[in-house]
Design brief:
about 110 residues; mainly alpha; disordered N terminus; 6 helices; two-stranded antiparallel sheet
């Protein structure tokens, strides 16, 4: 492999958004208090979304079902005043769906 091909590959790897992250990485984007609120709360739909995430192989940040589920959870938490740092739902969604880091990247089979 020529040096120029290696350089291009390294550039692409460093600058390509990471949209497939581990389930653990996605779960850790929620604060402990947000998780406790969901697990101890009475909203069964929020619990189902969290359960589905926990049973997934990875989290694709571009997946519409994941976006809907996390959006539902964020709206639920905002409605009861339990969003992390009392931010707006818009800001919290931006935090939760930011591109993954190299450390968060899912590297298994898709």
């Amino acid at each position: 492999m020529s040096n120029s091909i290696v350089e291009v590959k390294q550039y692409l790897d460093m600058n390509t958004p990471i949209t497939n992250i581990t389930v653990g990485a996605m779960q850790s984007r929620f604060s402990v208090m947000e998780e406790v609120t969901i697990k101890t709360g009475k909203d069964e739909i929020a619990k189902v979304f969290v359960s589905r995430l926990g049973n997934s192989k990875y989290a694709n940040l571009l997946d519409e079902e994941l976006q809907y589920g996390v959006g539902y959870i964020v709206n639920y938490l905002e409605g009861i005043g339990k969003l992390h740092n009392n931010v707006t739902s818009k800001i919290r969604l931006e935090q939760l769906f930011k591109d993954g880091t190299r450390k968060e990247a899912y590297t298994g089979k898709l």
